[in-house]
Amino acid sequence: MHEKYFTTGEFAKMCNVEKHVLFHYDSINLFKPAITKENGYRYYSYDQYFTFYVIINLKMLGMSLNDIKIYLENRNPSLLLKLLEEKSVEVAEKIKWFQDLQKTIETMKRSTTEALNSDDTICLKALPKEIILRSDNIENTSGKSFASFMQEYTKFSKSLGITIQESIGSILSVKNLQNKKFFTLSYLYIRSNSFIKGKTVIRKPGVYLCGYFKGRYEDTYEIYTKMLNYADKNNITLGEYSFEEYLVSDIAEKELNNYITKIMIETCENKAICR
C-alpha cells in the first residue's frame, strides 16, 4: 500500500488518541477511514490528519459529536464565522462565571477569617463606602413569607447577571430596633463591584457602631440590646440603618449556636451618614 496511508494504530498514535475513538467515530459516520479492506482493516490518509484535528478543535469549543457531523457536512467560511461568534459569546459567559466564582471564594475566605478573629467587643469603626445591590423595601410586606421573598430576590440577582450568589445581608431600620422589632427587615442586599443605575446604592462611608454575635439568628436581639445600651451610655446618636452580614452560617458550621453575625449600625459621629 502507498506509504501515505496509515493503519488505525499508527493514525491513532499520530493523533494522540486511543484506537477505540477512531472505531467509534467510524461507527457513527463522523470520521471514516479512507480505505476499509475486506478483512476489516482500516487505513487513514495523511490528509485526514487535518480533518481529524478539525473535529478535536470543535470538541474543544463544546460542540457535540452530532453537531460536529452536521457542521463538517455543510462547512463553509460563513458558517465558521457564525459558529465562532456563537462560541465567543459562550466563552465570555463562562469566563464571567468563573470570575464571579473567584470573587465569591475570596469574599467567603475574608468573611470566615474575620469571623475567626472576632470577639464580643462593641466599638466604633470608620468604614469605607460600599456599593451594594439592594432589594425592594420589604418592611411592610407582612403577608409575604421570607422564603417567598428569597425566591424573588434570587430572580432579581439573576436579572442583573449575578451568576454566583454571594451571601445575602440584611438592612434593618434603627427605629424598628429601638422599638424592639429586631426581626423586621427593611431590605436584603449583596455587595457589588459596579454601579448599576436604579439597582445599586451606596452604603455610606462613616463611623459605625460594630459588634459580632455568636449564636442562633433568633437570638441576635441580645447583641442589638447590648449595642443600643452602649450607644445610650456613650451618648452616641445612631443613624438610620443597621447592616447585618452572616460571616459564619450553614455553609461553614452545622451547629446553629456557632453562627457568627456581624452588625454595623450607622451613627451620627460623622454627619455625612445622617439625614
From TrEMBL:
Key word DNA-binding present = yes
List, for all copies, the residue spans of the domain called HTH merR-type. 5-74
- Transmembrane feature ranges: none
Key words, A-Z: DNA-binding
Q: Which PROSITE patterns match?
A: HTH_MERR_2
Question: Signal peptide span per the entry?
Answer: none
Per its record, how is this protein called by name? MerR family transcriptional regulator
Report the source organism. Answer: Clostridium neuense
